Amino acid sequence: MALKYLSNIDLNGNQLRGASIEPRSSVPSDHLIAGRTYYNTASDKLFVHTGSAFVQVGTTYANSVVSSSGIKLRLTGNNSTTDDVLFAGGTGLTTVATNDSTITINLDNTSVTAATYGSVTQIPEIVVDAQGRITGVTNRNISTELTVDGDTGSAATSLAADDLQFLGTTNEITTAVTKVNNDVKVTIGLPDDVTITGNLTVSGTTTTLNTATLDVEDLNITVGKNATTTSAADGAGLTFGAWSSGTTPTFTWVNSTSKLTANKPLQATSFHGNLTGNVTGEASTLSNHFHKVALAASESSVAKTGNTYTVTHNLGTRDVLVQVTRVATPYDTVYVDVERLLTSTVKISFAAAVTDGHYKVLVFRLA
Question: Using H for helix, E for strand and C for coil, what is the string for 171-224?
């Protein structure tokens, strides 16, 4: 039998140990005053009376589906009121109550098909929404060939398989490929010794050849190619050297005199043709001022009649000096009759018969 206390028990700050709150399987119906406490053995919950009703001590919860907005976690307080905490999926998210104690948040599927995108010939074009989700993927073909065109010929180069080469030509073009960091450089240049197999055209105002020896295979060199008249060619020629003091030797065309003119004396082993001016040295043969021939009928410029020889000299004048000499010892001058018949012939007459070839005639043009 339980003891009944008709007054309060004051433990004066001491502990109540080993005590058990009234256990029972149903709600009490007596002593319904504020603070009345019991433990419900059926629900395993502790209840206390508020003065008007028993309420559960602590909070309970349950989950339930709330239309399409998500999952509610319903919290029941000790005053029997309820508060709902909504687990609603945002854009691309869905909440699912898999059981009474589990709420799962799932990532919604998009319209993108699960697959591997891109290849050696394609790259994926990706569409991303504001939440960072991939909402679209399209394979786009990429160019795998590079068309290379030359002055002659054209070829398609596979970027994945082919080797693109930059080649020079022997003694004409050199090539070099280098790589520094991400820069691949192709250098195209000329070798130290260059051979041009075709024609070479150089445009500009000055062409400088820094060579010790210049060999030209052509038989003719044209100076002043664009000069179409003699006046336009005035001053064309050669200049020897480039010193600043004194007179630089030149050999040029002077249009006013219609002559090739050297500003320095000319020296040669022989000269052929007409000369104007002073000549220093030996004039071995002056074809239009001198004629020498043996007095013999066998000579082409000599005609013989008896003791008379007619000599054709073709010097174009009667102003000639005629001398007959012996061709053997004592190589003396003999005196004969001389007639200047024409501007091209003289007649030489001996008083008596002479032997062909024993004498020769020298004809000099005086003017």
Answer: CCEEEEEEEECCEEEEEEECCCCCCCCCCCCCCCCCCCCCCCCCCCCCCCCCCC
